[in-house]
């Protein structure tokens, strides 16, 4: 009997340790200082595909879509260096509660969370293509939620908070004029 117990203990000690899944809140907090313009943060539904471009990191949050969007927006709003350019699927406004119960309530909640920000609508396949391309050069943090309503993902391309598009345009105009 002692021999069996010793063998089990020995086998258990030689098995590789299971790595716990990353805590998405901690990963978001660690990533924020490193992320800059052209990086992306995605808050996606549970059926969003696992993309394989080298810069795309996917983390299962096991949290609600609204909770994760709220946390990401708070992290971005509290940053000194980035602001979001927000994209959502153009299919979302056409989904009914009859087809996906709860979609109207979600649209209202996410609209309140993103209020004050311009939201650009693109077809889902176009957004995925854009993310795939960005992931070849830039880091994309994908936070996968337990949402089970289609076309509800929120895609945030980060831009520089302290340098606007108008400032960039003015700079380029001065540079051309100088040459």
Commentary on this structure:
- With 179 residues, the chain is an alpha/beta fold.
- The chain has a single domain (20-172), classed as RbsD-like domain (RbsD-like fold, 3-Layer(aba) Sandwich), CATH 3.40.1650.10.
- 40% of the residues lie in helices and 19% in strands.
- It has 6 helices and 6 strands.
- The chain has helices at 2-14, 24-31, 65-78, 103-113, 124-134, 165-178, and strands at residues 40-44, 56-60, 82-89, 119-122, 140-144, 154-160.
- A 6-stranded mixed β-sheet has the order 2-5-1-6-3-4.
- Strand 3 (82-89), helix 4 and strand 4 form a beta-alpha-beta unit.
- The protein is globular.
- The model is unreliable at 5-16 (pLDDT under 50).
Summarize the structure.
The chain has a single domain (20-172), classed as RbsD-like fold. It contains six helices and six strands, in the order ααββαβαβαββα.
> Tell me, what's the shape?
globular
Q: What is the CATH level 1 assignment?
A: Alpha Beta
Question: Strand fraction band?
Answer: 15-25%
Mean pLDDT: 90
Count of the domains = 1
Please provide the ordered H/E string of secondary-structure elements.
HHEEHEHEHEEH
CATH architecture: 3-Layer(aba) Sandwich
Number of helical regions: 6
Judged by helices, strands and strand pairing, the structural class is alpha/beta
Compute the number of strand runs. Answer: 6
Helical content (DSSP H or I, runs of 4+): 25-40%
Read across the widest sheet, the strand sequence of neighbours is 2-5-1-6-3-4
